[in-house]
Amino acid sequence: MKMMTTLLSFFILIPLLGFIISIVVPRRYEKQISQSAFITTGIQLLLAQVFVIIWAFSNFPVYNIKEFVLFKTSNYEFFVDLYFDKVSAVYLVVGAVLTFLVTIYSRYYLHRERGYKRFFVTILFFYLGYNITILAGNFETLFIGWELLGTSSFLLIAYYRDRYLPVKNAMKVYSLYRIADVAMLLAMWMSHHLWHHNITFLELNNVNVVHSTLEGHLYTGIFISVIISLAAAIKSGQFPFSSWLPRAMEGPTPSSAIFYSSLAVHIGAFLLLRTFPFWKDLIEVRVIIIVMGLISTIITSLIARVQSTIKSQIAYSSAAQIGIIFIEIALGFDNLALFHFASNAFLRSYQLLVSPSVVTYLIREQFYKPALALIPMKSKFIQKIKFSVYILSVKEWNMDSMMFRYLWNPLKKAGRLFKFINFTALGTYVLIFYVGGVYLLFNEHLVSPQVIKFLPTAFSIVGLVLVLRSFTERKNVKLAWVLVIFNHFWVALAISFNEHFSFSHNLIYLSGVVGAGIVGYICIIILRKRENKTIGLNGFYGYVYEYPRLSLIFFLSCIGLAGFPISPTFVGEDLIFSHIHQDQFMLAIFVSLSFILDGLALIRIFSRVFLGPHIKTDHEVAYRSA
Description:
- The chain is mostly helical and 626 residues long.
- The protein has three domains: 2-362, no CATH class; 369-415, no CATH class; 417-610, no CATH class.
- The chain is built from 24 helices and two strands.
- The chain has a two-stranded antiparallel ribbon with strand order 1-2.
- A hairpin with a 4-residue loop joins strand 1 (63-72) and strand 2.
- Helix 9 (218-235) packs antiparallel against helix 12 and helix 17 (399-416) packs across helix 19 (449-472).
- The mean pLDDT is 85.
């Protein structure tokens, strides 16, 4: 038993070690880079096979290990917990096999590519996040892996970073991933209020505990389950979020095979399987998941039949199968869902890996015979329906345009209303009001309780306005950066009025914000001095080629400021949410929107400044798409 629990930690340590080695090896040594990835994934595969065999002969026990505590107070604990059962076993073996095969394939497929090292580093980074996710024993640990998957997704889609469409599509995918991230934060927030401690997945498997808890908090349980379903739907490309999946295929074929057809795209199904004991008795939630899976299966199947590219066909076909997996999970057929996951993952990976060869073999054997008009139809109504469905499928049921029309465009219009906010306004009004808010925080006796009760929501709205302004800023990159930092400070002030707690909580949250904010601002100043011109956000500059180290430092600052697990802000965001009361939905919504938009604003700043076609004409201009 002790040996098995010790080995469980190695499934995270081995990819982490391989990732570090790949970073250290110079990029000119292709052979050493690919060998480090090959050895890492090979050892992981061998260890996974041995571990699962021993586990099976031990009569399939469930392992739960509390590794270490990151932060602890009298009523809050953030700890890393590992969990292993049949769901983890299937995902572990399938992930190990496919990652090993894709690594072998990529050694030759990407030979002499300019981003050869960057690809293998990102793949091992993804594999680390994947293993943390599937072995997580609580929501907090799962969220660490969840964030790693999202960031590696952006990097893999934007692999051809000198082209317009890969970078643009990477931003689109990250935008939806950011919503899934905050959905997970909301689920963790309400779970803290429901259980009054950091619940583990082992405890969720206790039927009596779950039933007795939900008996008096039915609507809270439904809210958590629906939010989890939303996060799972986004991560697995289910309706109405399916349109990001073919856009993600802009990356290299090996990354598409391992990421968007086999492993990462099934993480949503994994989340539902892991939390199934919690919502299995909530009929409303099961119906929602079944309906969502059914609609996704029908629509993505129709879209896949009319796609003109192999990658898009495979992407939508995979989404259709995942819709069926969602239905199987909601119906309680967990073993069937696991078998279906493994089958779909292997099939789609195989199809994508052989697709370049298939296109090469059949490129001169394509015949176009538009015989649709020759098919006799007895009913004009049926004919109209068929043609309408065909056109809708060609247009991908307008899912992409709906996202822009009803989600992003309203936010952009709202942000444009605050164009008057500039550095002068920040220094004269926003900063003065903030200092006044801090003064009131330490002198609450000067304000009536009714006003104090209103202040958290008011201050969170101010933070949201600032990050909206950053999200729509087009001219001044420094202003956009500073506005994101100010947003975090206003959120911290809002929550400070909401509940009396130790100042160390805000210190943990804001220390990461200040550190990443200062480093990022210095990077912007250095770039401004080297280029000797103003850098805006109305187009792409592609400075990563001339300043690769500066771009790496700035990227780390962006993800650190967005709450990635490299800074205290990651723990701080969860701490902040834990101080929002259960009945304060408006406050939770405003803070959630702030976190969504600050991530989008930051990744937009990085993409516009450092990625895309280079602004200077003496550099080669790449094609728009891969």
